[in-house]
UniProtKB/TrEMBL annotation:
Pfam family, one: Methyltransf_25
Organism encoding this protein: Microbacterium resistens
Domain of life: Bacteria
Region ranges (Disordered): 1-23
GO MF annotations, alphabetized: methyltransferase activity
Any single biological process term in GO: methylation
Protein name, entry field: Class I SAM-dependent methyltransferase
Annotated ranges, domain Methyltransferase: 49-139
Keywords associated with the record: Methyltransferase, Transferase
InterPro entries linked to this entry: Methyltransf_25, SAM-dependent_MTases_sf
Amino acid sequence: MTDDAVPSDLWTNEQADHYDDPDDPMFAPELLAATSGFLAELAGDGSALEFAIGTGRVAVPLRERGVPVHGIEYSPEMAAKLREKTDAIPVVIGDMATTRLDQRFSLVYLVFNTIGNLYTQDAQVECFRNAARHLDPGGHFVVEVGVPSLRSMPPGHDAVPFDISEGHLGFDQYDLVTQRAVSHHYVRETDGRFQHRPHHFRFVWPSELDLMARLAGLEPVARYADWDRTPFTGESTSHVSVWRKPVDGA
């Protein structure tokens, strides 16, 4: 599906221009309040580092809560949109598996399925290790990601629809051997035609993330179904997971 030589899809200027959509549910004020409140509580009096910070959807409201935020972003175009909003959030261009900052934080986090942007298991493992490198002892690493919707896939098929609306058709296509997947987005243009905008990712299970955390020297703290701390169950479609760097960790 993709080239292993690159770590992730590189978002273009066109994608960056259309990313901040106030009508998108992920920009709902109540969701951003819950998300930033959750993260601010974990950051405490320290600072935070967001992997794949994008246009600052979460970083800006977290900064408004008084938490100093830094970012790592793979797409210069996405980072440019953040810089148009504020110059109070430093951003380094690079991928979240290998890029290092010369400081540590009380919180490292990545949201909205971003861990899947890394195409390989090795890259995802390195992302956890990179988070651990940037954490103060006792600091937390937070990941928000969906649970693979394989149970919804009809027998004999390899795709699951996630949105069917007037202006957008979306479905996820899964490769069960490689754990690679493609989110296919068909977006209606003003002339009525549909434009295909694929997004590649690697789906990952909660237990697999726990093992990645263990390999990075992190210990589990909690797993919730959402930012409101709803209990995570076998029916949950996503999760917010928290790990901690031991106080005696190197």
